[in-house]
Amino acid sequence: MTEVSVTSLLDAARAQFLRTGVRRTSGDDIARTAGVNRATLYRRVGTKDEIVRQTYLAETQKVLAVIEAAIGPVPEPGAAGFEPVAYVETFFTVTITQLRENPLLQQLLVIDRDETLVGLTLNAGETLTLSTALVADRIRSLRRFVGNPEVDDIDDQAVTLARLAQSLLLTPDAPPRLDTKARMHAYARTVVAPMVLGR
């Protein structure tokens, strides 16, 4: 008999969290959804807290993969037709849209708001680390494209932008008001792009 993969167990956990939230989901619920017994679930993944942690990380990786596919790579310096500011606008807008429209995040913010807020703030270190890595990579590539020298503050800029995205997800009704794609593009053009490009 083929042993079930960790990925399929985390997919089952995600599906169950979408239905009943994190707080009301038991290990038995996840195991039942995955078609395994609870002992197998805990042996392959760990405790419920570990299942939640890994599910959040897996969801983060999926979101980052969608964002990366949408924005594409930054070309080598001198490539014709590439607009760095437009790239930053797209990166920012796609990121905020993906976060705000993510089914798991939105469902958990409704049915498990307190627990989800803790997960997105106090326990968000690993998620921010993953997000920051992609942002830092693109900042370095964009700086090379526009001819700015490498600077020591890129990692700080990247984590600041990742935290900005986190804040915009958690408090969408607070300034800056970014409730349309046009406003997102304008904000990215006037605020984010100068920081990213260093000019």
TrEMBL record:
Keywords: DNA-binding
Ranges for domain HTH tetR-type: 3-63
InterPro entries hit by this protein: Homeodomain-like_sf, HTH-type_TetR-like_transc_reg, HTH_TetR
SUPFAM superfamilies listed in its UniProt record: Homeodomain-like (SSF46689)
Pfam name, any one: TetR_N
DNA-binding region, residues: 26-45
GO molecular function, one term: DNA-binding transcription factor activity
PANTHER family cross-referenced by the UniProt entry: HTH-TYPE TRANSCRIPTIONAL REGULATOR RUTR, HTH-TYPE TRANSCRIPTIONAL REGULATOR UIDR
UniProt-recorded name of the protein: TetR/AcrR family transcriptional regulator
Organism ancestry: Bacteria, Bacillati, Actinomycetota, Actinomycetes, Propionibacteriales
